[in-house]
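Assess the record.
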Amino acid sequence: MSVTANLLHCFGLKGDVQDNIWYFDDNIAVFPVGDNVVVYDVVRKTQKFINGGAIGGTVEGGTSEPLEGITAMCISPNKRYVAVAEKGTTQAFVSIYDLFTLRKKKVISTRDCGSKHFVCMNFSPDSKYLITQGAEPESGCFFWNWEKQPKPLAFFKPLPASAISQCSFHPNDNSVFCISGNGVFKLYRYIDNNLKLLPGSASSALALAKRDQTQQCLCHAWVAEERIVVGTEGGDLLLFESTGEFKVVLPQSPQDNNSINSIVSYSKGFICGGSAGNIMMYEKTDDKDYYRRTRTIPLISLSVQVAPNPSAGPSLSAGSVHSMAISPSEEHLLVTTTRNQIFALTIPSVLEADTAKPSTGLTRDDTLPISPSGFEYLTTSFHSSSVYGLDVCVRKPLVATCSSDKTVRLWNYKTNSLELVKSFPEDVYAVSMHPSGFHLLIGFSDKLRLMNILMKDLAKVTDFDIRSCREVRFSHGGQFFAAVNGTIVHIFNTYTFENMGNLRGHNGKVKSVFWSPDDLRLVTCGLDGAVYEWLLKDFKRISENVQKTCLYSSAVCLEDSHTIYATGSDKKLKELVDGEVTNSFLSSVSIEQLVLSHSGKILFAGTEKGCIRCYKFPLTGEYQEYLCHSGAVARLRISIDDNYLFSTGEDGSFFMIEIKSKDVKARKVTENQLYADLDQMLIPRSDIEEKNLALDKLKYKFDELSMHHEYQIKLKEMNYVEKMKEMKENFSHQLDQWKIKYESLTTEKADAESESQNKIKEQVEKHKRKIQDIENKYQQQIVEEVERYQMLSKSKEELQALYQQNLSLIQNKHEKAIGETKEAFDQRQKEGQAKIEATRKEIEEARSEFDETKQQKQDYEEKLSAERQQVLRLRGENNLMSKKFHSLNKDIEDLKEQIQTLQDDRKQQDNRNQHLALKKEIKDRDDTLGDKEKRIFELKKRNQELEKFKFVLDYTIKELKKQIEPLNSEITDLKDQIKEMDAELERYHKNSGSLDLTIRDLRLKNEAILKETAAQKKRAVAAESECKRIRSDLHDTMSLIQEPNALKERMKELYRTHVDIQIQEAVIQSDIQLEYNRQREYLEKSVTSLKKQLNKESEKHKADSNKIMQENIALINEINALRRELKSLKQSSKDKELVFITRRDVSSSPDATQAKNLSRAPSSRMSMSARERGEKVSGEEELRMIEMQREEIKRLRKRIIELEAVRSTPHSRPLTRGDPTRNTTDFASG
């Protein structure tokens, strides 16, 4: 079949499932709807489905049986699996699904349950075990290892059988779990394939019995590792220990006879909810036994959330709390109610609202605040009971539903949202939507009402006097509608409200009305077993089929109006052509509803079990079945484009199903054409007038506010201009003050620099003295340690010599023992070879005897052949010699028998010989194995003694480490002090270097300025002397003013003298200037190079000093390590001396003890030799370590001497620490 249907979205909740809401992660919720488990993404608003097992489950023995719906569910703590319990006809089933792949992982069931379903279940903390609780009357509790075994590990049945409401595992112990119920609260532990009651559970039962009446324990939660909170039917919160011992009734329990139905724990305490519809949050106080109620949050009503319009109808209560779930981050809380609603609460927003706003009321005792409700619907509100009415709009993506909860709802199947909800005081039985999407027909208990669909409400148009109308349908064009009134079908005009005619003929209630595609015919069926086809032109029947034994529930017809498909109580799908049954297909269950696609190629059927079947044309009885509802399908409808199927059921759920078909051609209608009226809606004129008045008022307010705003802006601009002037004046005044302060600070800075230089010099000298003292101190300590090391090495050599002597003695003894064992083994080997040779000889003799018998056999056979030839030749004398021949034959047979017996005896003899040889070999090998096992046992004993000795040595090593730890802490403190001093010294060096550089720059600039002023002075003196000479010569020439020729000659002479000199001086002056500039550039370059060299030298000196300091620290660490090694060597030498002394005492004991220990000699020798070899190896390693340490000490001493020599050289001192005058002289020389 090429038609596929996929569940797209659903609205509803299966409210009779225990713990019917869970969090997969912070953004994904899991809850049951119908026969499916929905995985809902809160952020993306998408749903995924896990189909239940209502089609069938496999029982023990391999047979399958139908299942009857989900009864309980839970999610594993690792958020990987979800367990779904389903009711069977003979036993209960649990299906476990993978939440990542949504595939079934395992199914577990048992016949020992005694009930058809499980009421509750829970996973262990590591998700490997599962506990399930059966329903009454037997209430069996089962403990499963669901991953490995299909059968329970253990189970018990409480006596007397009680209604258990909840079971849960200890949060940290896989073997402890708790059950609670009607007067029951018990804790069990799984031990050795049995469930044993904890001792404290008996005291808890007595505590419950002592109260005024038997407590109905409805729920419980593990609030901590050592506490359990139990909620009762009377509103008490009981606190128990993890052992089951009753502790106390919490003082702030509700105790208002409102039951507590659910408890969830979180990090601060726990949250509980009950039949009053309130959520109460409790937090832990300083006292471990008590919890304090911090806030009470009421649930919202349905009309407040969806239809805030006062005309939306009476407010519907949200119902009492059924189950709760808290997200892993503890930021969100989900609550399900008994009215099949799911609410979501953001916990941080409630806490912020409590701190920001005053409380809206007080609780019963007027001491605890009631917080404003922060609840919202998780998706939207659902129907709380059976949905009996359903219809689809043609021009808009809208679906209308009505329910026995007295509400009518409009859904948008493109956005998967609820557009409108309206509640009524009367019962609502049927609903039909006009193709335009603007009108709605609703059947009430006393009338049929036509209503307009407005933006946020339904407005009444007119009423029709039809009581309890349970079936009403608009025609495809929308100009007519048919309404059922008992056994009569009324036809009305939609726009004139005129009754066009009545269809009479049914003797029972009409259950279905179906319009033909051309709106000219109408098909009806009823409980009287009749299916009628009516012609609306004259309101007469044109075909009929009556079967009084069948109560018809639904009928549809094809486009040709001749073929009708009907179904009823006889569980048959019938095909009627012109009133005659042409085909009928028997079904295993009753079919309640039929719907035909607009293309006429697909038929959908809804069954009493909640499944939807898809039949493809031509009908053959084959179908595909899809799981949807947990109750009977109440209504089926299909969209105008045949892409969506809608289903409602008696369980209160509403399913949207996507249809994909390859055989049926798609309707050539675009979405824009199909939903052209989507944005159009009806609005009352009064609403438009109110909005226009509100707009006029807002415009007037806007104009006033804009004028006021402009005036305020102008005033602010004026104020800002005045403030700017004031700020400028203040700024100029402050600038003058800051200049004065700057000058004073520069003088203070110069004074501070001189003081800091003096202090730095003092600190450097102190540091040098301290370093010298430390070096002297550690040098003396090194010498003392070296002397101690030499003494220890001498004692070690003595101990090693003693060890070698003892080792040689033990080796000699060991070699003697090995020689003795080798001789004994050789002797045994020779004896075994002799025995083998004897057996070989016997075998050869037996073979010779066998050859002799074989030869005799051949001789007898030759004689027999000769006799046979003679018999042939003497055949004529056969009668005479017959007697002799028979006797010879008998002799021959006897001889053959003797030969056969001899051969059998020979074979038996050979087998006996082989058996004896194998027995001897097995016995010898058993003896050798026994010796080796004895040897291994003795070696194991010796190994245990060595392990004891090792434990003593480990203890001594730990004690030595404890003694070393305080010394290490002192060394680290000293290292930190040295690092701090080095850092401080580096800071001083940096400051002094920067100050020296600035001083040098200033001095160079000052010298350059002085040289320039001296040169200018020289030039001025030379110019003044030249002027004096010119004046005197001019004065002399003025005396010759009366003599022109003499004056001319005198002027020529003056020109030659003064002008030539000036030109010559100008040339000389330019060369001097060039030489001066060249010298100045050279000096500046030399100054910069010297500065760089100075920086490099200072950095090198710092690196050298840091390196020396690090090497000193490394030397100190090595010295400390040598100390520790010397101490360990001393301790080990003492231990060795004790061992040798004990050995000597043992070896010098009396002969009786030696004789007693002779039996253990081989094993003891072997263990001693192994131990001596280990000691020898450890001694050689210690010698190598000592030699390496001596060489390292020598190398470090040489390095210290080299570094001291480097430090003592004068060129290694940085220039920054020298005399500043030295720098200037160096520059001058450069």
Summary: The chain has a mean pLDDT of 80. The two ends are 105 Å apart (CA to CA). Residues 405-504 form a domain with the Neuraminidase fold (CATH 2.120.10.30). Residues 685-873 form the longest helix (189 residues).
